[in-house]
Amino acid sequence: MPKYKSIAEVFQKEKEFKKFREILKENEILEAFGILFPDLKKIAKPIKIEKNNLFLRVENSVWRSELHLKQKMIIEKVNEHFNKIIIKSIKFVS
């Protein structure tokens, strides 16, 4: 008798779904940014995560400088929230 797998098991383990799993994880992280940093919602928007770099769109150069100084704290808070190293650096974009 063939062994059947649940949809969740197929999605979590099959290599064909690897890219899709990565996209979902990235979206989860981007959405968590607003929860972790509610005070930054109006000035910074997470765009994407690529190769452990968080790309943040910042309102202006003044805020970019301010957030650059807080970069280490932001990285630590995100990584701590997910209990693993997800972000190693932040790239600021206009």
CATH topology title: GMP Synthetase, Chain A, domain 3
**Shape assignment:** elongated
> Which class of secondary structure composition applies to the elements?
alpha+beta
The multimeric state of the shown protein is single chain
Strand content: 15-25%
Query: Secondary-structure element sequence?
Result: HHEEHHE
CATH superfamily: DnaA, N-terminal domain
The major sheet is characterized as: 3 strands, mixed
Compact summary:
Helices cover 50% and strands 19% of the residues. The protein is an alpha+beta fold.
Observed structural traits:
single chain; 94 residues; alpha+beta; GMP Synthetase, Chain A, domain 3; three-stranded mixed beta sheet; 3 strands; 19% strand; elongated
Reconstruct the topology from this structure.
Elements: H1 7-13, H2 18-36, E1 44-50, E2 53-58, H3 61-69, H4 71-82, E3 89-93
Parallel strand pairs: 2-3
Antiparallel strand pairs: 1-2
Helix pairs in contact: 2-4
Overview of the molecule:
The chain has one domain (7-93): GMP Synthetase, Chain A, domain 3, CATH 3.30.300.180. The protein contains four helices and three strands. The protein has helices spanning 7-13, 18-36, 61-69, 71-82, and strands at 44-50, 53-58, 89-93. Strands 1-2-3 form a three-stranded mixed β-sheet. Strand 1 and strand 2 form a beta hairpin. Helix 2 (18-36) crosses helix 4. The longest helix is centred in the first third of the chain and has 19 residues, at 18-36. The model has no long low-confidence stretch (mean pLDDT 87).
